[in-house]
């Protein structure tokens, strides 16, 4: 069953110049569906509309036409307040620059969504500690974000994103600031989350290596879905297929 469904999504950034129709059409008539438990990458050349799409799917941007549904809720019909609550309780977010609060320890950062939700203290402690263990950051849990590595910060951000059992996790270039070893560890965390907990993950990335951990890659070009490929064999084989597809789509890695 599709947990995320998009129908006829279009987005025009209003032009700064004079007259009507002076805007920029960033997305054109996109329809897309993501099944529960899928791990999907969105790739495409710079300026193709990936971040615009992710911002709409995740409820950050509400100025668009078309329908976006998550689970049973049509988020394109929600008020700002309803959407804010829905985002906090039903979505998880992972950003390129981690977005952790420097004044809180890693453990406190992870538990924050449960604290904001006023859940039981015992549940908060148990869930937080289990999640820190799952992603192998329990040994540094009492440190502050600026004193640990980028990979540890990103694993903390992933822990925070899943602590409330969201319907879907949105990740925007989660390996963008990481060296290849940390990127690999972080992608293995996403994979584990997907395979062991059936988490649904939608990730924007330029990185074919990161995308090769997914079950499907959706390629965006000029604001529309250009092509989709599904993983069939090993991660390495999928990595090669992604590279070939990028070449066919007319964008080398330099364009991404
Ligand atoms: N606030 C804005 N106002 C006007 N145009 C915008 C705005 N944000 C993005 N755009 C334009 O919309 C298009 C899509 O931008 P978007 O950031 O979604 O692309 P992207 O695929 O995420 O690019 P990148 O890979 O470089 O991050 C680009 O041409 C961009 O210049």
TrEMBL record:
CDD domains: ABC_MJ0796_LolCDE_FtsE
Key words of the record: ATP-binding, Nucleotide-binding, Transport
GO CC terms: membrane protein complex
Top-rank taxon: Bacteria
Domain ABC transporter residues, every copy: 4-247
Transmembrane segments: none
GO MF, one example: ATP hydrolysis activity
PANTHER family: ALPHA-D-RIBOSE 1-METHYLPHOSPHONATE 5-TRIPHOSPHATE SYNTHASE SUBUNIT PHNL, LIPOPROTEIN-RELEASING SYSTEM ATP-BINDING PROTEIN LOLD
Protein family: Belongs to the ABC transporter superfamily.
Identification of the protein by name: ATP-binding cassette domain-containing protein
Species of origin: Paenibacillus monticola
